[in-house]
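wait is this the right file?? whatever heres the structure
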């Protein structure tokens, strides 16, 4: 599910996702 979102807003939460991951 995160992939679909990251595709269009990957840069938006790209940092948050990596930080959380």
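ok assuming it is, sequence goes like this
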């Amino acid at each position: 599910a995160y992939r679909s979102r990251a595709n269009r807003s990957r840069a938006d939460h790209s940092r948050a996702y990596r930080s959380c991951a």
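The chain has a mean pLDDT of 58. so i think its the right one actually
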